[in-house]
Amino acid sequence: MSLGPSIPKPDAHGKVTGDTNYAGDIDRDGQLVAKVLFTNEPHARITRLDTAAAELVAGVVCVLTAADVPVNEYGLTMFDQPVLIGPTSTARSEVPHDVSRWEADHLAIVVAETSAAADRAAALIEVEWEQLALVPDIDAAMATDAPLLHPEHPAQSNVYHHLVIRKGDVAAAFAEADLVVEGTYELPYQEHAYLQTEAALGYVDDEGRITIETAGQWTHEDREQIAHALGLDDEQVRVIYRAIGGAFGGKEDMSLQIVVALAVVALRDRGIDRPVKAVWNREESIVGHHKRHRGRITTRWAARADGTILGVEATGHLDAGSYNYTSNKVLGNLHLTVAGPYEIPNAHIDSYAVYTNAVPGGAFRGFGGPQGCFVSESQMNKLAEATGLDPVDVRRRNTLRDGSIGITGTEMPAGVSLPEVIDACADAAAWTDPLPSPQPIAAFASLPPSTSTVRRGRGFACAYKNIGFSFGYPERSDAEIVLTGPDGADEPDGAQLFLAGADVGQGAHTAFVQMAAEATGLPFDAIDAEFSDTASSGDSGSASASRLSWMTGNAILGAAEEADKAWRDGARPARGQFRYTPPPTEPLDPDGAPSVPNFAYGYVAEAVDLSVDVETGHIVVHDVVCAIDVGRIINHDLVVGQVEGAVIQAHGYALSENLQVVDARVMNPRFSGYLIPGIGDVPDQVRSVLLEVPDPRGPFGVRGMAEMPLMPYAPAITAALHDATGLWFHEFPLTPGRVRAALRASTVSR
Amino acid sequence: MTLTIATSLDEVLSAMANGARPIAGGTDLVVGARQGKVTLPADLVAIDRVTELATVATNDGTIRIGAGVTHADLLTNDIVVRQLTSIADAAALVGSPATRNVGTIGGNVMNGSPAMDTGAPLMVLGANAALTTPSGTREVALADLWTGPGQTSANADELCTALVLPQPPQSSGSAYVRLEYRRAMEIAVVGAAAAVTLDGDSISSVKVALTAVAPTIIEVDGLNSLVGSPANDKAFEAIAEAARQQARPISDLRASERYRRHTIGVMARRAAHAASVRASGQTIEVPVNRAFGIGENPENIR
Ligand SMILES: Cc1cc2nc3c(=O)[nH]c(=O)nc-3n(C[C@H](O)[C@H](O)[C@H](O)COP(=O)(O)OP(=O)(O)OC[C@H]3O[C@@H](n4cnc5c(N)ncnc54)[C@H](O)[C@@H]3O)c2cc1C
A437 falls in which pLDDT band (50, 70, 90)? Predict the structure, then answer.
């Protein structure tokens, strides 16, 4: 009853009218300003740091350096990053703290009355550096004489993480093959470009907890990392999320949380009971947080003339940048997706994460999947060309289905709906009908549409993506439901829901309440929810990996059942707490033997129709069909919002977002130079085709769906561009300059 | 630091005589200062409330566009849209509605960026800048005004009061075409303006100027040889070739030298074609902003 309809997000009105407070909007009485100074050194050893002059600036309260950090290390999956770089630091850290490995490494925190005073003080901090050999990219990192960037890592190599798949007999597959398709693919960075830049407000709460109000993706993990660096117990730290203006994976790692918490502790220790706030401007945000990984993948596929894939060989490198962030995990997803959602009897796959001095790579919607998918789908489209088969038919021939053995050598979790998804996409796109002849386009605003230098084409791609953290991570999700009703009532008339799961703008909180309403049989408006405060809710895990509705939905179902039991037992109010634990998964075998890395997947296919101006290289996308199995629709408009949002984010990734990193420095850290699409640039239409093939283990049949539509878009675009011009692109974004250069090198255009 | 909010031309001129720098919409000045590209002058005089600077008037074969006329006004002004269409084309492309509502033609011209959008149209339409001090006004051709990126030959105490243009003859048309990567909130990668006057089917005058391919906006030389020839693809291709040859583009983060050199030819050809279509009496609407379907309705023009 509460599932399916497009209930408007209760938070929408406040966000549209500006009423909603984001962490950066909140000002408390007596609040101080914290400014984080970046080292601005991609690779250098600090030899001197003197803050004396800075501390004398009027209005400065304190200047904190590495010497003030109790445990000078942090990291979401590995502690490989110092909180502050400095010549002296606490001994309780493995990672050398006197080397800046990233231009945005943090050097000092200035706490002051005003940001002007903080800026003046920051300029007076004296620092001396000894330059170290720069490792700007993967090639430099793998050179024999490359400096070791993380001597503390057991790998003792910049190539610090390696995953393998060894399945069947690849040599035999290539020997038997009628044809081989191959390619080396260069994958670009992508910036998250969330509207809300990083911000954190810190203070000591009534119960003495170091409290941080911020925007993130996982309250409890933020708390754990803050507590670790501060040398505190988790319970001594509290994390509250205010409204979050987008995250996309970019707020999974620490930005200002630890440094502001450090400032809170320093103030408390000085007997100063005042809140402190830090906000990054756009340049600080773009320079200061991780990106979607760039990387290079070389692959060969062996196939029969009828299009059946016999074997896949692939070697991929991701540029992890200066610190791991989640690179080791992102690599896992690249690893599983690089051979595509197909039955691959023989595979030999090596994936590597490589430390460099460039901006760290990390979580970003799709988490390695978009990179893997670009490779697999480009290969698939080339296979279609090589065999003369239709791109949809060749996928139908190879697609995973229920009972298929997946790339890691074990049976796919039940509910493999890709065959239906492919058919639904092809049908909606009228794939077998001939493409209408050129449609007039205006490559840019100043000319009316014309067809004179225009070519048109269409392309197809599909993808699968795991749901959840995978690879043996002990997943869990807590929820609490309290049923209430008037004295003597037989049935409850209201419920409270306590849950940590972050609403990063995707509408998770709306979906949670809908699911709680459904699970309790109460109306939507009868649910009173409290979210995202570690003081009042258990751990939900992160808003990432397309996992949140799936995991919290199961937790909500469990909590509702417990609460209902308590109610039947006469408890008033009736409290139900539940911790959902999903089916266990396994880490990949170090030698590539079979393993079960995941308990669920989502499936998607996309068809695009575009035109290209061959004189200038500009691309206009007319139509996108995205068919996706969401298992069960919780809120129709929110699902469509995720599809359209993902497609548009992918549109920027594929076409215009061109982060330029030169000598390990981001050259275009502004939206005037890093071009996300505007409303005039996005596809003319995006059609969402939603399938509801239940995930047998998802709550109400739900599948995760928020990342999947981003994945097939870039390879669908290059396929359409190939259809239009006959050229394959192994690199993107497809900026007009890049497209034009390829056209010039060919015979397509004068 | 001081800020004088002037309401009359005299106030502006005396503040400038005392060393103040003018600020109109502030969309270059303030943004540049925030980004650390320029330091905000210590003394500023705001000129946006000086109504005498904000008018477009025709007088005796001359059109005067006040320096304080905003882009939003340019692209809906009847005189500009009908007679100086390429300026409306350019104004329509500037930034966003917010930028167009406060940004001015005087600020665009005096900021001196080689990527400014109104510069090439003004040049092909033969505009002079009227530069005024308390002791008088002189008129400077734009080719003499712009001396380098962000540099002009104007003296610090000279206010640009207007852009002064000859009224185009009958059978004239002009167009501005900009290559951008995004349809709004963008800067020209390259751009070209053309002004064409026809005598029947043949060209009686043609001028082309180029955006973002040299340290300043430049006019393409040597097009007089096309006078008398038909306004056809052959002529447009000759214009494209001249543009490619005379451009001196650089490679930067936004585009390679090679891409700019190639596309400046494409832009020049498309601009010349569009200007000829307009000169022949056909309409090509001003693109405000074509991507959003705004401005294609003639009722928006007042
Ligand atoms: C988001 C954004 C997008 C933009 N997009 C574009 C674009 O697409 N195309 C484009 O060409 N520009 C663009 N610009 C730049 C800018 O908006 C224009 O150049 C605008 O016309 C500047 O006018 P202004 O009145 O704001 O100038 P101001 O910033 O007020 O002044 C600019 C300079 O000119 C001087 N000045 C101003 N008026 C006079 C005068 N009358 N006499 C003497 N000196 C004067 C000032 O002292 C200052 O040095 C963009 C800017 C922004 C912020």
Answer: confident
- How do the residues of chain A divide into helix, strand and coil, expressed in percent and rounded to 5? 30, 25, 45
Would you call A367 exposed, middle or buried from its count of C-beta atoms within 10 A (0-12, 13-18, 19+)? buried
Domain contains A401: yes
Non-local (6+) Cβ contacts of A417 within 8 A are A603, A629, A691, A693
Rounded Cα–Cα distance for residues A359 and A286 (Å): 10
Q: Which residue of A has its CA nearest to B263?
A: A616
Q: Which residues contact A438 (CB under 8 A, 6 or more apart)?
A: A451, A454, A455, A456, A611
Q: Which of A283, A284, A446 to mutate to test the interface with B (most CBs of B within 10 A)?
A: A446
Count of domains in chain A? 1
CA gyration radius for chain B?
A: 19
Q: How far is the CA of B209 from the centre of ligand 1 (A)?
A: 20
Of A444, A677, A740, the CB nearest to B262: A740
pLDDT above 50 for A326: yes
pLDDT tens digits, A528-578: 999 999 999 999 999 999 999 999 999 999 999 999 999 999 999 999 999
Q: Which helix (H) or strand (E) holds A426?
A: helix A418-428
Is the minimum distance from the CB of B185 to ligand 1 under 6 angstroms? yes
Mean residue pLDDT across chain A: 96
Pairwise CA distance, residues A503 & A192, whole Å: 16
* Mean pLDDT score of chain B: 93
Give the CATH number for residue A380: 3.30.365.10
- Residue A440 falls inside a structural domain: yes
B5 forms bridges with which residues in the sheet?
B46
Residue B162 is encoded by which pair of tokens?
């207007």
Q: With a 6 A CB cut-off, is B72 part of the ligand 1 pocket? A: no
Domain that holds residue A312: 295-469+591-745
DSSP letter for each residue of A259-319: HHHHHHHHHHHTT----EEEE--HHHHHHHS-BBPPEEEEEEEEE-TTS-EEEEEEEEEEE
Query: Could you give the CA distance from residue A464 to residue A551 in angstroms, rounded to a whole number?
Result: 19
The DSSP bridge partners found for residue A346 are A311
A497 within domain boundaries: no
The verdict on ipTM greater than 0.90 is yes
Task: Count CB neighbours of A361 within 10 A.
Answer: 31
| CA-based end-to-end distance of chain B | 40
Angle between helices B257-279 and A736-745 (to 10 degrees): 100
Backbone angles phi, psi at B114, to 5 degrees: -70, -10
Give A411-416 contacts, CB < 8 A, sequence gap 24+. A412/A601, A413/A598, A413/A599, A413/A600, A413/A601, A413/A697, A414/A696, A415/A600, A415/A631, A415/A693, A415/A694, A415/A695, A415/A696, A415/A703, A416/A601, A416/A603
Both tokens of B143, joined, read 């080719």
Residue of B nearest to A449 (CA): B290
Tell me the pTM: 0.96
- Chain A residues with CB under 8 Å of B274 CB are 447
Distances (CA, A) of B193 to A411, A444, B151, B189: 63, 15, 21, 14
Q: Is the pLDDT of residue A621 over 70?
A: yes
Interval between CA B108 and ligand 1 midpoint (Å): 4
- On whether any CB of chain A is under 8 Å from the CB of B25, the answer is no
Yes or no: say if A634 and A549 are a contact pair by the CB < 8 Å rule: yes
Number of C-beta neighbours around residue B164 at 10 A: 17
Give the position, in ligand 1's atom list, of the atom nearest the Cα of B161.
41
Nearest to A656 among B179, B182, B285 (CB): B182
Tens of pLDDT, residue by residue over B52-104, are 999 999 999 999 999 999 999 999 899 999 999 999 999 999 998 999 999 99
| Ligand 1 mutation pick, B93, B99, B164, max ligand atoms within 8 A of CB | B99
